[in-house]
Amino acid sequence: MDPLYESASLKIPAVQHWLQTITYTEVFWNSIVQVLLPDLAQVSKQAILAKDHSVPSSGIIWPSIYVGIDVIVNQVTPPHRDRASAPSLLDLVVSLGTHDTSFHVSDLGTIFDYPPSTMLYLAGNILQHSVPNWGKGERIAVAHYMKDAVHNRFGVARPTFTQQKDLLGKFLQG
Prior knowledge:
With 174 residues, this protein is an alpha+beta fold. It is built from 4 helices and 8 strands. The strands form 2 sheets. Strands 1-8-3-6 form a 4-stranded antiparallel sheet, with no helix packed on it. The protein has a 4-stranded antiparallel sheet with strand order 2-7-4-5, with no helix packed on it. The longest helix is centred in the first third of the chain and has 24 residues. The protein starts with 12 loop residues before the first helix and ends with a helix.
C-alpha cells in the first residue's frame, strides 16, 4: 500500500494564504452542502477526519468538506467525466468572474446558463460535462470534488443519492 502524504503544495506560503483567504467562503459553501446533501457532508467529514488522524500535517486547516479543490481560470473545459469519484459523491462547481458562458451536460442534452455566482452540483463521474468558449470577461471556476480512493483507503462509505423526497421531508416535518 502506498504511503499517505499531504500535498506538497500546502507548504507553499501563497497557497496557505489563499486557503486562509477562502475559508469564510468555503464555510458558506459547506453549509449549503450540509443542507442540500447531508449524507455527502457527513461522509466527507468522516473522510477528512480519518485523513487528519493518519497523515502527517503541516498544520494547515483544510477549509472545505471536499477533499480537492481546483481553480480553472480562462480555460475551455472540454467534454469529460470526473472518474476519480464515486457516482454519489457530487462535485460542486462555482462560477466566478465577469464572463457570459454556459455549462453543457451532453449526456442529458442540456445547456445551463452559467453566469458568475452560479453553484452547480453534478454527478461528474456519471455525466459528461463541459464549458465551451465564452464571450468577453474572465471565467473562473472553483471545482470541488471527492476522491473515491480516499474513501476506499479509510473505509468510509459513500452516501446514497439524495432524493427530492428526502429534502422535502426534512423541511415539511416542522
